[in-house]
Amino acid sequence: MKVHSLYIYPVKSLAGIEVSSFEMDDFGPKGDRRWMIVDSDRHFVTQRALPELARVTTSLADRVVSVHVPGEGDFTLQATDQELRVLVWRDWVKALKAEPAVSEALSRFCGKELQVVYMPDSSFRRVDVGRVTEYRRVGFADGFPLLITSLASLNELNLRLNAPVAMRRFRPNIVIEGAPAWQEDNWRKLNLGDQSFGIVKPCSRCVVTTVDPDTGIKDSGLQPLRMLSSYRRTSEGVIFGQNAIHETPGVIHVDDPATVIELE
Q1: What letter would DSSP give residue 208?
Q2: 3-state SS assignment for residue 31
Q3: φ and ψ at residue 14, rounded to 5 degrees
Q4: In the listed set 84, 118, 152, which residue is the last one of a domain according to the structure?
Q5: How confident is the model over 124-162, as pLDDT tens digits?
Q6: For a tag on the chain, would you pick the N or C end, based on fewer CB atoms within 10 A?
Q7: Nearest to residue 170, comparing CAs of 53, 24, 7?
Q8: pTM over 0.90
Q9: Is residue 123 part of a domain?
């Protein structure tokens, strides 16, 4: 078993970036989902409601995030000192507004008023206390710092589909190669290189998995979610991948060996 691929998502629900390594800080992968988009009610916005966001690409250079909005151009994300309380799931979080140009461009692209915001270090959003008793933080990710998936599980799913899908549909941070399909359901502790991870919750999937990451169009047959629902439904939802927390800051690389330390 080893790390097959790694991804970070500088802006929640925009296109991610495949990387050869990433550093982990208190939030998770450094720079991952520290930016987010909210509507005029200050509620978070994702591809669930605006699938066209998949076409907005991101880049990262020297810790500076840029986005490309189709038909609008390239924008460097810069936070202002204007504070805004924003809602991500059930959490109201202190954020900072971005410089207005990118928000205006996204508003035109999506046809509704949108605002890009940043989570500063001074803002603290706690990981789900029902799953993690330690006082741990997370950025604007749905609930946990990391999502781990298995290449074999994707391959098994694709054997059932008329049209195979790419792993990008599932927006993982870490993809593992060499494990049997769905074995990740039973992992509880995992070492990747010299870094340790705790598996804390199966990842329940939603309609974002039906959005083609290249076109921003939802699949009319709701695949692959419909197929997953037929055989991967549990009390936790329709499952693909596992949410995780890292035990310490550090760096993880593609091809790092993966070792299961504890099973359920």
Answers
A1: G
A2: coil
A3: -90, 170
A4: 118
A5: 999 988 889 888 999 999 999 999 999 999 999 999 999
A6: C
A7: 7
A8: yes
A9: no
